[in-house]
Here is the input.
Amino acid sequence: MVVLFCHNGPLGTVDGLKYYGVAHNDSTFMRYYSIADELHIAIRVKTISQEEANRRSLITVNPVKIIPCPKTESVKGIFKIPKLKKILKQAVSNADYVVARIPSSIGYFAAQIAMELNKPLLVEAVACPWDACWNHSLKGKFIAPINVYKMKKILRKTAYSLYVTNEFLQRRYPTNGKTISCSNVSLAPIDETVLENRLKRIKNKTDERIKIGTVAAVDVQYKGQQYVIRALGKLKKQGITNFEYHLVGGGDQSYLRSQAKKYDVEDQVKFIGPLPHDKVFEWLDTIDIYAQPSRQEGLPRALIEAMSRGLPCMGAKTGGIPELLEPSFIFSNSRKEIDEILEILLSMMPEVMETQARRNFETAKNYEKSKLEQRRREFFEEFKNSVVPAEKK
Here is the structure.
């Protein structure tokens, strides 16, 4: 059986033979082999340097076929839509089952084509297109209603849907079909020594510098790192300069660097660049507070991974973030946001950090790979057994 996975991605390649991902990695793709003998992946692919490839995760799952797709979200990209549809129609025709991850243009088109060709379709709802587009740009504010309509229409018609949140996406984008709430996070079994080491770090910390960290692309403004930078600037005006902000993620750093310069905290903002997925956990153990300031999320993988390392965390009132953290560590997406971030940072006394470390560590256990994979596998099997591929009928 061939399963076709469809999403914007992207993946990177140096030579067109090997592919590298960040959020899309072997653990992402392995789950589909529970119902597939072969996996086809329709996704964007961009050329990267060998240096950047070394900082990503090599895709090694097999058998696999990567189907490169063009980007269509631009004025020039609009003219590539016919090409994308042609690529996807061929890919869907060659597949037995289609998994469309949305919101994404590739996911939307693949889902529509699968319905037209009467191919078994499972949709994964991983984020809110309204939040993503509205907080992206002026152009995004015009596109937001269109993408919301697409996502609602697809989910209403889909027989099987997987949501990464427990409530948020289900409320905004309901379906009439069968559903499961299952995060796309895959945590390895959680070792209790991780929490012990975190508590020792909090208790024995002698360095006055408190390291805040975020894992996200640094060239997408709705990821929200600029709000933490502005909060550091406001703290500096009060004479408080013992916070550092460490940013892991690829992309053009110029906007965030300009924000750090504007708010006079250049020496407090450190750009780490992208890291392979397994190295992210090592990095998480070197920081003191994790921040998820984004204005567009489903249920953020990076936040759950940070919680699994016993990190005190804070996050925006976005998507499924309030499903993970205590209310006092959530800040609003409003004009009060900077002050709220500032207040949370100043509240991080050792005793508070200890309590949050324990609490977050225990919460993260709900997202251990063995627990989630079992639920996901059963849902995938039900999907597979309930439908017969069109050409098999």
Q: What stands out?
A: The longest strand covers residues 38-43.
